[in-house]
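Handout, section 3.2

Students often ask what a structure token actually looks like in practice. Rather than define it abstractly, here is a full record for Integral membrane protein-like protein. The first block is the sequence as you would receive it.
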Amino acid sequence: MISFAITVFLSAFLLFQVQPIIAKMILPWFGGSSSVWSVCLVFFQAELLLGYLYVHLLHESFSPRRQNIVHCVLLLLSLATLPVVADPTWRETAAENPTWSVLVVLASAVGMPYLLLSTTGPLMQAWYARSFASLMPYRLYALSNLASMLALLSYPVLVEPYFPVHEQAWAWSAAYVLFVLACLGSAWQSWQGVSGERERVASAAESTPRPPWRECLLWVGLAMTASILLLAVTRHLTQDVAPVPFLWVLPLSIYLLSFILCFDAPRYYSRPGFLVALPFAFLAVDRVLDGGLAVPILVALLSLSLFVFCMVCHGELVRRRPPVRHLTLFYLMLSIGGALGGSFVGLLAPAVFNAYFELPIGLFLCAALAAIVLWRELRPAWRWLVLVALLAYGYRLAEISVDYVADYRRVLRNFYGQLRVADLNDDGLGIKRAIYHGRVNHGEQFLAAEYRRRPTAYYCEKSGIGQALRSLSGEPALKIGILGLGTGTLATYGRRGDEMRIYEINEQVVDLARNDFTYLADSAARIVPVLGDGRLMLEREPAQDFDLLAIDAFSGDSIPTHLLTLEAMQGYLRHLKSDGLLAIHITNRYLDLRPVVAAAADRLGRTAIIVDLTPDADDRFCRHSVWVLMMRPERLESLPEDLKKAEVLVPRPGFTVWTDAFSNLLKILK
């Protein structure tokens, strides 16, 4: 019995520990987009489905001892695929089709071990039920979810802050070898446990009637709805609040906690209490979608609501679980639902929708399934009341969905997120057009002829980048590099004879900058757009000899981590003239990126100054912005007086420089 528990616990821990490891490893290859995590979850859910299908077929088609042999052979073969390290050659083609590239990279790096790990929970339960016929195996499922949650919670606290990602992968691979040994031990115990008496018990169980397909579809629907809401809430948090890995872990931990509570002991799912709480959870999410909440309140409301949704879905699943004979079918249906929900949010929605409609859809499905499971138990009058309430809630969700796109000039969406263009009326200065990535302003322009060539927002003349570019205005023809296009505001600083080479990963941003804004068309400089991840493009190019290189590539509210590592900075400096300036935009509501840049500058022997602009309340052209200017120490003396007075960044004691293999977001939370 202990052998089975150890095997299940270790497999589940490794199953979920590898998810953030491999996701962090490949995140830089895909522009640091929050969609990487969503697509990773789709892959992991699809692998889980394949694993559960394998267990179901194995359980239905092979005798107990043949099951042991087949599975043990596959376990030993999987050792040949170690270590779980992504092949860096995929970086070259990653941007061509990012969604499918993520899936292929994951399959080649971790596909076989993950598949074998995913089979362990239901397979060990089936073997456990065979070896200990008098005991119920479902509590092993709660144990596996407990291990999964511990793996997720330990990663950002105990693993990520202390170990480079490749060391994490090698340590995980060593632990996988231990898992294989534990699983072989459980297989041996199961082999010995197959006796004539237990075979007769198993034969008697064969007569247990198969659950009807209507019940199977309900299992799929409940699992799918919980999966949709998990990914939709995660996307809302990482895209519109802060695209940081901590918010990958929080919703998934809540999801797993509901599994633990429901499967460990059904009494934890107090049906009347949670069904009463369900409408309040719907109202809480409605309030979140209205906007205007402080971040802690927003995160708390979404987390509590997700917990209620998952408890209802998973609690109803446990209420309908079949006899042990059909255990593998039950888990197969759960995995089908999870994979369908993940594929809907991670693959279908970005390709079909232009806004985040999957969250309202998931909420309506949850309400509809709650009505379905209660339908037979309700009196006719109550049925009509529930139906009217469901239709009213559907109408409200339709209103929310319309608000996602209403009053916007253009709404676009792809792998890299949602873009919206809005025209706002600014009294006295006319129409101001802005572009939003999620809820974050990524640039704006006044449309009136007298103002449209004025740099605005984070790029106005008082900002750090504005002052830096003006300080170069006395120089002959300049060559400027820019990572991140936005609306193209920095093109306003271009003069005749200058060249501005602008790197942008999202072709939809290029389309909006050209067709909805005039900064690029109005610029006197020669504009050279380069489509692709800025860092990867620079790595492939010969030295550009930039007078100034601006790093202004944001995903939501944060700069992707791979653009701030020591290796990235070394690459930027290779493209600068000896007296060139490296300008890094670090404005952020949630993360303090100063120590990251300071540590890199110190390691590279550069001086970094910070320009933190808080404009006057009546300033129509400037927004609060924080820019860091990095240069050789002797270059500081030739800067204008205003920049000479700027604060010099000093490394934070004990702060470890970020590299491609190591970064720690916990230490820079505001």
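Discussion prompt for tutorial groups: The radius of gyration is 28 Å. How would you have guessed this from the sequence alone?
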